[in-house]
Design brief:
This protein is mostly helical. The chain is 62% helix and 3% strand. The protein contains seven helices and two strands, in the order βαααααααβ. It has helices at residues 22-40, 48-71, 78-81, 85-96, 108-132, 141-173, 177-183; strands at 16-18, 185-187. The protein has a two-stranded antiparallel sheet. Helix 1 (22-40) packs antiparallel against helix 2 (48-71) and helix 2 (48-71) packs across helix 5. The longest helix is centred in the C-terminal third of the chain and has 33 residues, at 141-173. It starts with 15 loop residues before the first strand and ends in a 13-residue tail after the last strand. Mean pLDDT is 89; it is low at 1-10.
Length: 200
């Protein structure tokens, strides 16, 4: 359970611990590169094969992340960070009140964004595959492209919200979350970390 590692009255723990394993970090940055490349190549017929390849790669990455979310290290597992609406609201309330709860792994709001991005990637991949191969799904074939573009636009909005959340959370907790996704290290108690960056 990803409970806050410090009470609201306590400062953020100052010990640097290993939180994100290497597979999670590689997944994260590959998703960033693939989505950026797919978005930039979306309107170009010349780069269509690249666009499709990046889309398939993202779908494969999501499939892998679902498995890792069940079998991965402590903070990579969905059970450690996926929470209900009440917990998300309580976390957002703590931010507004100036007493933010510190979470070693994903905070509840960040977890919501992650679940949304994984789901949207699945929708984007399915509709993109149907559009590229001219296959009708349970809806008219002409809808696939519209759904594909709509889901991609919504994904861009969620990514923007995620980036804003990273900046806000970095400021209120006085830790660089973007760097943490590069190094794997965050602030927390010694017992909250993982043992290896490359689990067997």
């Amino acid at each position: 359970m990803n409970t806050p590692s410090a009470s609201r009255a306590d400062p953020t723990p100052a010990l640097s611990i290993l939180v994100w394993d290497a597979p999670v970090r590689v997944f994260h940055w590959l998703m960033v590169l693939c989505f950026a490349g797919a978005w930039l190549s979306a309107e170009s017929e010349r780069w269509r094969l690249l666009h499709v390849t990046l889309g398939y790669t993202m779908a494969g990455l999501v499939a892998w992340r679902l498995v890792w979310g069940l079998m991965g290290t402590r903070h990579a597992r969905f059970a450690a960070f996926v929470r209900g609406p009440a917990t998300v609201l309580a976390y957002l309330r703590s931010l507004v009140q100036g007493r933010p709860e510190h979470h070693v792994g994903h905070n509840p709001a960040g977890a919501l964004a992650i679940v949304a991005m994984l789901g949207l990637t699945a929708v984007i991949g399915l509709t993109g595959w149907a559009t590229y191969n001219e296959i009708a799904l349970p809806w008219p074939a002409s809808w696939s492209e519209e759904l594909h573009e709509g889901a991609a636009t919504l994904m861009l909005a969620v990514v923007g919200g995620h980036l804003l959340g990273v900046v806000l959370s970095s400021l209120v907790h006085h830790e660089n979350l973007a760097r943490a996704m590069l190094t794997g290290r965050k602030l927390g108690a010694a017992g909250d970390g993982i043992r290896r960056a490359w689990p067997v």
